[in-house]
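Researcher: I need the complex structure. Ligand is adenosine-5'-triphosphate. Inputs:
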Amino acid sequence: MGLEEVEARAAIARLIPVEVEEVAEVLARAGFRAWAVGGGVRDAILAGCLGRDVVPGDWDLATDALPLQVKPLFRRVIPTGIAHGTVTVLHKGSSFEVTTLRGEEGHSDGRRPDSVFFVSEIEKDLARRDFTVNAIAYDLKDKTIADPFGGIQDLEQGIIRAVGDPAARYQEDGLRPLRAARFSAQLEMSLEEGTRAAIRPSLERFSRVSVERVQAEWFKALRSRCPSRCFRILLEDGLLQVTCPALFAAPPREPIEAIWARLDGAAPNPVRRLAHLLYDGLSLPEKELPDTLDRLRLSNHDRNEVVGLVAAMSLPEELSAEAVRKWLSARGRALAPSALAFAQERGAPESFLTLATEELKSGVPLAVVELAISGKDLIDAQVVEKGPRVRALLFSLLSHTFAHPEDNDPNRLLALARELARAER
Ligand code: ATP
Ligand code: MG
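Model: Output:
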């Protein structure tokens, strides 16, 4: 027998935050109904009934009150998307999106509905949602569940299924095929056959989705326990090629299964996992990386990290403390721990990893600012005049300390700097 609705109700009642119930009570006192919908309900059933290791994150509410009726009921309300019926209610340190029951019409840009219209039945609101598992509502007053598309059964069977005709739903919003793949990874579920088969015919629509939305889905998938579930679908059904044409354009250097295993086995750090994917999927990582990163519109910070990690894979040829210090210095202290994790996940020799970890902790200088002497000290001591030679001299000192870290002492460095400056003249 399938999962009973009573069990689902009990699980949601147990896991729903009291703040959500309080928001619903305020709405109820003003004569409005309220439902918990979307990811919170889905995750509560997964965790509470199906023993899954998920923590319900954000709880969204649906209500029959209009945004302008919701606003005055709470002290702090952000008008997130009044036109689309959404306000954010801040209550006791938490924030909840409260959205008026609505339907959608026309999606001529392939992402946002041309118009939304408010409806009075929760079932109609659920019908605009993407997947059955995301289209379950919990009535916060009656404590009943509305599940018109069989979302509970799909949760139990581990199936992501579009609400209605998948091809039509993908045409409305071109992001949905990617969301399907992302949920498959995040929830560790399979795509229903028709929901998957409709992906390839929707690629043109998908190609018009903004890269920011795509990137957000990639990152959610990359944080999940099993990102390969998502990227396997993206690769096999063409979504990956739309976003990053260079990725897997040529046969990879390794069997694809090994690449997926490495991706899943890596720590759930999205940027580092992305670096793995790009390193494995680009035939000339260092050459093709800039264009691929441009396409993904990564933040500067994330971009630098990916570039730094990929570069980190040129490991020192010989295993000496000096070579390892140079390698660490080239990464920089901030990135070095991540570079070491990356190298480890890519199977770098244990001897290198051990030595590099020791050196990183040892406090040997890895940058000129970590030297026991500064440019100003050199100028004050009249070793060198202000100008570009100061920096060059500091780098020579740093280079010296890679081989002789015991010389990182103000007096010794000063003496050494004098010698170097003299030799240069
Ligand atoms: P998570 O927050 O874990 O990523 P979620 O299901 O909460 O998952 P959100 O993107 O926060 O996902 O959206 C909340 C709900 O809004 C979804 O559960 C779904 O019902 C609906 N929804 C979100 N995006 C879409 C979309 N592109 N098309 C249709 N319905 C959507
Ligand atoms: Mg959510």
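Model: Summary of the prediction. The chain is about 55% helix and 10% strand.
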